[in-house]
Specification:
623 residues; 3 domains; 41% helix; Aldehyde Ferredoxin Oxidoreductase Protein, subunit A, domain 3; 6-stranded mixed β-sheet; alpha+beta; Aldehyde Ferredoxin Oxidoreductase Protein, subunit A, domain 2; homodimer
Chain lengths: 623, 623
Amino acid sequence: MEFKLARINLSTQKVTEEKIDEKTLRRFIGGRGLGAYLALKEIPKGIDPFSLENKVYILTGPIVGTAAIESGRYHVVAKSPLTGILGDANSGGQFGPWLRFAGYDGLVLEGASEDPVWISIVNGEIKFHDAKHLWGKGVIHTEKVIRETMGVTKESLGSVLSVGPAAENRSRIAAVMNDRYRAAGRSGLASVIASKGVKAIWAYGNRKVLDELYDKRKYMEEAKKLIKKILEHPISKSLNEFGTAVLVNVINAHGALPTKNWTRGTFEKAFNISGERLAEVYLKARKGCWGCAIQCSRVSEVESGPFKTPISEGPEYETIWANGADTMIGDLDALVKANYLLNDMGFDTISFGSTVATLMEIYERAKKGELPEEKAKELFELLGDVNPEWGNPHALIQLIWMAAYRNRIGDLVAEGAKRLAEYFGVPEAAIHVRGMEMPAYDPRGINSMALSYATSNRGGCHLRAYSVSFDVLGVPKKFDPLGIDMEKVQLVKMQQDYFSFIDSVIVCKFNTFASGPEDYVELMKAAMGWEDFTVEELLETGERIYNTERLFAVREGTNYRDTLPKRLLEEPLPDGPAKGRTAKEALEKYLPEYYKLRGWEDGKPLPETLKRLGLEEFLYIVS
Amino acid sequence: MEFKLARINLSTQKVTEEKIDEKTLRRFIGGRGLGAYLALKEIPKGIDPFSLENKVYILTGPIVGTAAIESGRYHVVAKSPLTGILGDANSGGQFGPWLRFAGYDGLVLEGASEDPVWISIVNGEIKFHDAKHLWGKGVIHTEKVIRETMGVTKESLGSVLSVGPAAENRSRIAAVMNDRYRAAGRSGLASVIASKGVKAIWAYGNRKVLDELYDKRKYMEEAKKLIKKILEHPISKSLNEFGTAVLVNVINAHGALPTKNWTRGTFEKAFNISGERLAEVYLKARKGCWGCAIQCSRVSEVESGPFKTPISEGPEYETIWANGADTMIGDLDALVKANYLLNDMGFDTISFGSTVATLMEIYERAKKGELPEEKAKELFELLGDVNPEWGNPHALIQLIWMAAYRNRIGDLVAEGAKRLAEYFGVPEAAIHVRGMEMPAYDPRGINSMALSYATSNRGGCHLRAYSVSFDVLGVPKKFDPLGIDMEKVQLVKMQQDYFSFIDSVIVCKFNTFASGPEDYVELMKAAMGWEDFTVEELLETGERIYNTERLFAVREGTNYRDTLPKRLLEEPLPDGPAKGRTAKEALEKYLPEYYKLRGWEDGKPLPETLKRLGLEEFLYIVS
């Protein structure tokens, strides 16, 4: 198989084609893995993420767009302006497949254009277009104009990736958007794309990637088996029925729905903002990413009132949680609208809602006189007419505009929770790992998540290991979420490695409730012709990727230590089934065992580990 | 007296000083008059208002800052991006006086800076400063940063003039702001300043302008007499008590409060948004412009709730009307907040509210199926999550952000009502004269305003002639607002000429309820040493100014004809004391008489009129 990158220099508008050799592909697969490897080799240590030296890798994987098993994804990798280490994010929709159909398996953006441009990629031809008229505009308008310019208005044909005003204004929590409502949300990479002067990328073409597979017939057979397994799984079914927001009630019932900026584990208005209620009141249709039969995406509408929102996609569980429970906003009308605006402005909805929750806590403390007088005065001045009281949806909505254009307090909200809280001298009000805001599972109530979060390479993230699957959902088997069990450590590590493969190949993680590494061995043989491929190699590949990512942080000399926010380690939950719990015990017990399994010490891979994984070229980082 | 301009070329950052000779000063006084004269001489015909060839005149007048009779004003003149003819606007606060104290009686901005700058003027020294960090920011933040940079944080010292995001994004309804809450609002001149790359101007210094007057002692005596007269007038007293919003109930009672985009003349929620209610619920303090004892400005606050607004100035009658009655928003909380945001973003509140009212009408008609299908579809797409139903304050608030940054429908709102309505094929939904949105007095209920509006040089405006004063307030004597009386024509012309002088000298128009031209004769003698100055010369000077402004439009070959929006001429008011009335009869009767008095024909000054006024140099325009 040929895996072809277009290396696009924005400073010179020169494009060079580059083939990834078979050996590298087998060692890093594609997507997230290949991105980590190239970034570690090519991005110099210590650079400013917004400098010319940063590079953006927009990568698909070898089975993306093969009409099978939810393979409609792409991955973005760059040095993150939010964490200062390797950032990466992944998105569905249609862009990944269409990028391949357009002739490229991945793009590398280098340098920077002085004037904003958008890029069209059509059947291998890359062109640069003036984007001055699009700069400052939202994602929805941008996509519309580009489609009209290209003469392709049918939604199922071609795809636009774009960045919104948030990214143009260098928000550290800006999301790469595609197909209007899909986001490669985390770690602020959209702002790196914007810093290169790129507003959008159009991809369209006729390449038949399925035909390029080693054994198409066998591949389709294996894929069908897997799809059947996936579609029959009860979690797939409830994802279809209620969307990801099906989790609101489940996680709330476990006392692990972070509420009021992680000071509580249950939200009394959880049902109001649940997937069940979304389906009942707002749902107009179900939708899937390219080639996906699960159809977990919601098409919703708020028909009238102050939060009227047109038919549009979302909101997802994480969006609802961060902008809802975490801020105490129990009004789903407002959350549907907030989701729409956050997409249009191009924000990471998790980081945004979490940052607003942090602001609400800071505001409450300022009103109580708990901030230094000067800082409180400045806060009130910067807020002006914003009233960030717990539960006020109007503050949330206005903050989206203010952060997108960095107005007043918006200038700090756009920086994310950590910098906001530090600015006001209350760093503990930001709930983050490595500077990235944490998602919707309280590790005090689901203790395996303590390890999953702390060891996540990109920062506060539920997608490196989704140990909720065994602690709560019983996949592959059920554990007590509050019980210490060292088997969880093995499972967390296994998930991290398996998911590294999944994010590289690339398929949707929702496959993994039904699948295990063993399900991908035959598929990969058929796709790639790797006749001797095994479960062990698959997991070792994932482990190689995981270590490569970690090496980026180690080389930066920062943000590679594995820990959790003070609040989660020291403040017991005051409510719900996990009342009285912290995440301290779990983290302290799990982490040494994890390091043993990983061959790491104090967050750093040992030299022998790198040798075992064939990462000798990076030995210089740890020696 | 020396009247000194600084001519600032932004392209080269070169400043040249220029003295206005005594003869020109006596012919055009200063401010609005001098601006009109210089603009007509210096701005070439037919240029794009945003081109390098446009010039911005920021002018004070010869008695500005003389600690007497509300002389704290300045005037801005340039070719208007809203009307395409001469634009001008006037503002109080402190900037006018401080510009003089800083050593200049006026500024002319020419050319354009590539990178945004702000300008400091301190005791005759003009410096250019990088304004990149201020570009995109609101007015409040901009002023704060500039004051901190200059080390002058005491509010009563020095003054900042600035433009907000609205102007940066070339809104045609952007207001020049100063002292945070004061606006030279009309005709979109802030965007011309922004097009020159200028974000703000700081003025500070120790010049004693009072000492430069011809006979300071006599001037102070005359000024004291006038101040006494003004302060004793009942209208001055009610302006102090209730602010300009005292007019809400008064004009509503006359059935002339334009409601629901001028489809009605009374608003059932008028009391909710009245000056009386403002004083009762929101008022924290009264405030005046530099050296003013009337103190008509409001200092208000909304303490809690969705429309929480910090202590800030306003709102004025026009703001409340345009964003309230005209849009059917009867919630004063929302209007106080909207006023705050409109100031911070730098919008003309009259034009903005009127444009939103126009949008609401278009939306209603689109929902009823009265728009072409394609246009309705586009409207709904551009609205997205905005719900511009009559009376929805949340739509108003969000539209402020969207227009400031030209997002989706905001891109059209930023263009003003006329262009918005034309875009959707319903030009009659925009209530404007010469492209400028009309203010808060329905000429169907106050018929002298038909003439005042139609003949206003700058477009829909109540400040060229404020015939409400005699038709409603009984100053100088009471007329029947619904009765045809040709004496009104004389009074309208007299006011236009008198106000031209008032705007040039410059004092606040609220003086003119108590004063007449005769009150300024002795004052001008003392100030200027014009011993033979008379009432006749004062009014002829005003007439000269009025004709000069008109010549600008005549030369452009557009927008000089005097008429009213179709709705006001053809649709009878359905409600209130003026039920059944249109403005047609009044306009048709008054206009010929007015032209006779003016020596005009079909909106154009006759050659003999120009000769009579000593405007021979402009004869080429009319011959």
